[in-house]
Design a protein that fits this description.
The chain is of the alpha/beta class and 195 residues long. Helices cover 36% and strands 24% of the residues. A hairpin with a 2-residue loop joins strand 7 and strand 8 (186-193). The protein is globular and about 45 Å long.
Amino acid sequence: MRGLEQIPWLYDGLCAVLERTGLAEWRRWLANGARGRTLDVGCGTGRGLPAYGAGIRVIGLDPAWDSLRRARRRGPGVPLVQGSAEALPFRDGTFDTVVASLVFCSVADPARGLAEVKRVLRPAGRLRMLEHVRSRRAWKAAFQDRVQPLWTWASGGCRPNRDTERAVEAAGFVIEAEGRSEMADMRRFSARARS
């Protein structure tokens, strides 16, 4: 079954609603902190592509052709590549910044995807993320665990109970305090590879 994430018009509609309630500002934060050559992993329909400023050489990557076709309209000059986070088709140390916005909840093997992100980042590079994550409230985390199988099936892969921050740290990154923010079960942060 194709889920929400594989139906671009439906995903765009949901994102449009969320952007009116704060998501747009967080997407701008992601893009404004990008430097140099930037990989937008899971760029989807390209909603974040117009936010990148001049001087940022961004490449968008997504596994779905239908999403990339929509992304082409939002970022006409942006190179777009079909691929997965677990097998990034780029050389080691290619990027100054990797941006992931609402992506790692759906990556089948997040540890492998984060290892790939670390591989393609330059030594001083930054990973900038925006994700919905496992709740800090015990009752809500239990609820997320209970609905996860149905939610994952209906959404086409999203797992609402992922502890993405812990996965990022386990992959060898240090989450920086500056700019880190949370709103309910949404988190945004920047991370660098541990020395």
